[in-house]
Amino acid sequence: MPSHPIIVGITGATGVIYGVRLLQRLRDSGVETHLVISRWGSRTLAHETSHSREEVEALASVSYAPGDMGAAISSGSFRTAGMAIAPCSAKSLAAIAHGYGDGLIHRAADVTLKERRPLVVLLRETPLSVIHLENALKLARAGAVILPPLPAFYLAPATLDDAIDHTVTRVLDQFGLDAPGSPRWTGA
Description:
With 188 residues, the protein is an alpha/beta fold. The protein contains 7 helices and 6 strands, in the order βαβααββααβαβα.
């Protein structure tokens, strides 16, 4: 278990369930989490799930308003184990890739990169334009892990939850966290 909290950002891209499930898994593992849901993340949450913003914020140890630039996570002196943005919109990808920290998610991601901590970005856009690809490459070169939430069919998922859980397990792997109960490939 990490000795420092993990930041979770939820942006307005489709797939907010990835952020919700990540928070659930981290809470169940006893990991401290600091959460920021963007304005559009809240809107997408209402469209795609039955969870309220308040319910999702309650999954986190600490939650912040998306414009709270005075939050602890906006400074590199606040130690974290890293950050996951689940899902990450193309807009947020661009803002982070170009150092444009106009909101707390972007600022926290910028701090994560400059402090050389893990930044895991679940880019949720399709198809990807050359601009998206260049922004993703720029972030990968800066040390981020670009982890599109793609289903793994080799595990024969029986439900959508199985596919979501597999992606969340891959995110947890990036932080060195074990995900008990998650199926893994053991060979053909």
